[in-house]
Design a protein that fits this description.
heterotrimer, A alpha/beta (about 300), B alpha/beta (about 170), C alpha/beta (about 425), A: about 300 residues, Rossmann fold, five-stranded parallel β-sheet, four-stranded parallel β-sheet, about 15% strand, globular, B: Rossmann fold, three-stranded antiparallel β-sheet, 3 helices, 8 strands
């Protein structure tokens, strides 16, 4: 079994069988992570480069560990945001890294489409670790993996994604992945942050959170970027929390065994109450652990696709 | 034209015989555990464990091992092997591990399996039991217990099927 | 030198001519035109003594096109295009008069830049160049540029193209003041606060690509404002590159009511492609205003058909290859359009949106009229600017072979069937096969 592309740039580029293969493979890697020796020789001799144009300790660390546990050499290549505009062109940087012998390039960038661009221009495998407001495919895959561990099937589940959909690559990748796997997706948030156009994709949109959460199986909270405050998207974080913050009371609208998820880092008291984040419905820390297994699976599978 | 090497009864007999050989070699079943290599070896290991348990009068721990992540053909194979579950739910350090596989050929799978086992713990010994040894070794590996030695040519393949997969127990040369 | 072009289909809507015939050029001017339609089949007199005979059988003979909206990039951005290469590209595209936008470096906001452009054009240009001056100094929208002095120096219109005059009072003053010269103000209609950093049309596609969208209303608000200001001031308003259904409706209503002196243009890309051309972040489809929806394309065609839109201009905006190779957000907007103008526009004729005459009106007659120059006709005595167009031979657009330095086009690889095979400009014959 193989993926069809040498790259993972978007969930939109995957079908249900691709997603299924990644999740199955991740299950094998989750076993590995439970052992004393958490490292396997599968990708010995390969080189992975973390090319990060946006600072992100969590995602970079997760990819770095995943790559190391597959026995690849890992190099971190951070480019400051200021040099994006003035410095070496994206293509030149990427070609340089490829010339150094990188087999897998993991890229994060503040501009949408950068992963596509690199995938088209490089022979190495490109993994999108988040591009602008486009996609963050491995986050969606790890979310699906986490759901699958707790719920038998993804098909038929009702999933609410709450918050800044417009600017969230996590929301978009999840929306595509969940829809592809047969879940029913609801988007909840202020109309300034939930583009109505998405209804054309067959998702439901709610601005009333109490209505939107009714009978859902999964509540995915998104991080609210503080800098959106006062830019006309919503007045203050106080008002935001009143309308769209996940409190224990609001959560009670969802099914009793609903899972609460968050891609992190959380703003406690802004989008999610601490009681919920730490409550028994929360699988937020499972998501982190599963992220490793899923990223190992992705790197392993991509390395098997000959360019 | 497939040629039958072993039928259901042959396999049953071989498992019984191997169970006795393993018991004899190890002077009983103390500190003994079985690990089958996914997938054919896993079925054999479970059957063998039952037999050994009957002889030794105790339950023999049995696990399954996936060797996909330990293979050495990364550069030459066309696609990644499917990663299956490894389930060895017992401590193997200071135990005698009998690796079980259906067919022994180049020896590369066994090399991978030994590395995989070593990552799970430090057994006091590793022994190897195979249903069919078809020759053509590429590594210095030799089975301790062999069901049947079959001379083959490189073009041929040996296929073993099991009732556990919904098929009739048999081994054929193709 | 006497040139005879024989047996072509001569289309000269300025004089109501559309028929097979012969045309004679002498000393850089049209000497005589004889067509069946104008003179009748049997009455065709012999033309003798030509030093060059051109057989245009099966081809169209059109007045050289007049492009109201071109970025020649010189001075300042010679790595994108120069007056030499830009005018050569024009000629390759059948265009013999180009109006060049002022967003050069320095900006064409004073007569010395205008004079530089004209001097350079007369030395190196392959066709007529008509500079468009900036409305405001540095295109900053704060102080009026010396429009009258620039007009004297040769500017035929004024525009802050690419940077709309956001301040309504400033736009009002500019429209009022332009009446001194009786020249049009060409308005790039975009409400910058609403488009706010957008890079493509706003809609499902922009959301799914994670690209910031520009709603059609960002254009329409300014179209409405500028029409209102034209009504208020009586100044001449020419609306550049219309891209939306709503803009077409606004211009149509304004023309119907007769309240303002308004003309409007669109570009081939707005009736040839939709936002889908952006695909997976193809920067060559990044243009401002952005490519829109199918309904906008249909409305633009309707606007061309019913006369709401007067002009097809290219908004030829060449960029260097490296600038378009990278992040979509950072890539400059623009399409190198001169060399696909006729190919794309002729599709409107094939679809029945425009007649051949109508096409020539939109690309030659009307633009010449708007800027008040004596071009766009094959009348005897007129400058011998013309293009001979083959409409029968399919070809594949090859951006790499563009004469323009800008190879940035979303139409690379498209199969089209119309293109110039001969253009006569400034007394020189350019031929291609």
């Amino acid at each position: 079994m193989s993926l069809k592309s040498k790259d993972l740039v978007s969930i939109r580029g995957l079908d249900a069988s691709d997603i299924g293969l990644i999740l199955e493979t991740a299950a094998g890697f989750k076993d590995v992570l439970g052992r004393d020796i958490k490292k396997v020789p599968a990708l010995r001799g390969k080189t992975t480069v973390n090319l990060f144009y946006e600072p992100s300790t969590r995602t970079r660390t997760s990819f770095e560990l995943a790559a190391k546990r597959l026995s690849t050499d890992v190099v971190n290549f951070s480019v400051s945001t200021s040099s994006v505009v003035k410095g070496e062109s994206l293509r030149d940087t990427a070609l340089t890294i490829q010339a150094l012998g990188a087999d897998i390039i993991i890229v994060r960038h503040s501009c949408s489409g950068v992963a596509h661009f690199l995938a088209d221009n490089l022979g190495a495998s490109v993994v999108n670790a988040g591009d602008g407001t486009n996609e963050h495919p491995t986050q969606a895959l790890l979310d699906l993996f986490t759901i699958q561990e707790r719920k038998e099937a993804i098909k038929g589940l009702r999933v609410a994604i709450v918050g800044d959909i417009l600017h969230s690559r996590v929301a978009k990748s999840n929306m595509y992945a969940l829809t592809t796997m047969g879940a029913k997706v609801r988007l909840i948030g202020p109309p300034t942050l939930v583009p109505e156009a998405l209804e054309e994709l067959g998702v439901e949109i709610f601005s009333d959170m109490d209505k939107g959460l009714r009978d859902v199986d999964i509540v995915m909270m998104l991080r609210i970027q503080m800098e959106r405050q006062g830019k006309g998207f919503f007045p203050t974080t106080v008002e935001y929390f009143r309308n769209w913050g996940l409190t224990p009371e609001r959560l009670s609208r969802a099914k009793k065994d609903a899972l609460v998820m968050h891609p992190g880092p959380m703003n406690r008291g802004v989008e999610i109450a601490s009681d919920v984040a730490d409550g028994h419905n929360s699988v937020i820390l499972d998501q982190v652990t599963n992220g490793l297994a899923v990223r190992m699976a992705v790197l392993y599978l991509l390395a098997g696709v000959k360019g | 034209m497939p040629k039958e090497l072993l039928n259901k009864e042959d396999i049953e007999r071989i498992i019984t015989r191997m169970a006795h050989e393993i018991t004899e070699r190890n002077r009983g079943v103390q500190s003994l555990c079985l690990i089958g290599i996914q997938r054919g070896g896993a079925h054999l290991a479970r059957r063998l464990a039952l037999k050994l348990g009957g002889i030794g009068g105790k339950t023999i721990p049995v696990g399954v091992l996936d060797i996909a992540l330990y293979r050495d053909d990364f550069a030459v194979r066309k696609e990644q092997p499917v990663v299956r579950r490894t389930e060895v739910p017992f401590e193997i350090s200071n135990e005698k591990v009998v690796l079980v596989d259906d067919v022994l050929f180049t020896g590369r799978s066994i090399r991978a399996a030994m590395d995989a086992v070593m990552d799970l713990g430090r057994p006091s010994a590793i022994q190897l039991a195979v249903l069919v040894d078809r020759g053509h070794r590429e590594l210095p590996i030799k089975a301790d217990f062999v069901g049947k030695n079959v001379p083959t040519s490189l073009e041929e393949t040996v296929r073993v099927q099991f009732a556990e997969d919904g098929l009739e127990d048999r081994a054929v040369l193709e | 030198m006497k040139i005879a072009i024989r047996n072509g289909r001569i289309i000269d809507p300025a004089r109501g001519i559309d028929g097979i015939g012969d045309l004679v050029i002498e000393d850089g001017k049209i000497k005589a035109v004889k067509s069946q339609k104008s003179k009748g089949r049997s009455q065709r007199p012999e033309i003798t003594g030509a030093t060059r005979e051109i057989d245009a059988r099966g081809k169209l003979v059109l007045p050289g096109l007049v492009d109201l909206h071109v970025h020649l990039r010189e001075p300042g951005y010679e790595y994108k295009e120069t007056i030499r290469t830009g005018t050569a590209a024009a000629v390759r595209g059948g265009v013999t008069s180009v109006c060049c936008m002022p967003n050069t470096n320095p900006v064409n906001d004073n007569a010395s830049v205008t004079e530089f452009i004209l001097k350079k054009a007369s030395a190196e240009g392959a066709c007529w160049v008509y500079p468009i001056g900036a409305i405001t100094k540095g295109q900053k929208g704060e102080e009026l540029a010396e429009m009258s002095i620039m007009h004297e120096a040769g500017c035929v219109a004024f525009s802050d193209d690419g940077r709309p005059v956001m301040d309504s009072l400033m736009m009002r003053r500019a429209l009022e003041y332009s009446k001194v010269m009786n020249v049009p103000l060409i308005s790039h209609c975009e409400d910058l606060s609403l488009s706010s950093g957008g890079v493509m049309n706003e809609g499902l596609l922009s959301v799914t690509l994670g690209l910031k969208g520009i709603p059609p209303q960002a254009e329409e608000i300014m179209v409405a404002r500028d029409i209102a200001l034209a009504e208020l001031t009586g100044g001449r308003l020419h609306i550049a590159h219309i891209s939306t259904e709503g803009s077409v409706a606004l211009v149509r209503a304004a023309k119907k009511r007769g309240i303002a002196d308004v003309t409007a243009e669109t570009c081939p890309h707005y009736f040839s492609a939709t936002e889908e051309a952006v695909g997976d972040y193809r920067t060559n489809a990044k243009v401002n205003p952005p490519l829109r929806r199918k309904r906008d394309v249909e409305a633009i065609k309707e606007g061309l058909h019913d006369g709401t839109i007067d002009v097809i201009a290219t908004d030829h905006a060449p960029h260097h290859r490296d600038e378009k190779l990278g992040e979509f957000d950072f890539a400059p907007s623009g399409i190198s359009g001169l060399e696909t103008l006729i190919g794309l526009s002729m599709r409107l004729v094939d679809e029945g949106v425009l007649s051949h005459e109508g096409l020539v009106e939109k690309t030659a007659v009307n633009p010449a009229r708007i800027i008040g120059v004596d071009r766009g006709t094959l009348a005897p005595g007129a400058a011998a600017d013309l293009t001979v167009v083959d409409t029968e031979t399919e070809y594949t657009v090859g951006a790499a072979k563009f004469v323009s330095r800008g190879k940035n086009t979303p139409f690379d690889g498209w199969v089209l069937s119309a293109r110039p095979v001969i253009t006569i400009s400034l007394g020189r014959i350019h031929e291609w096969e």
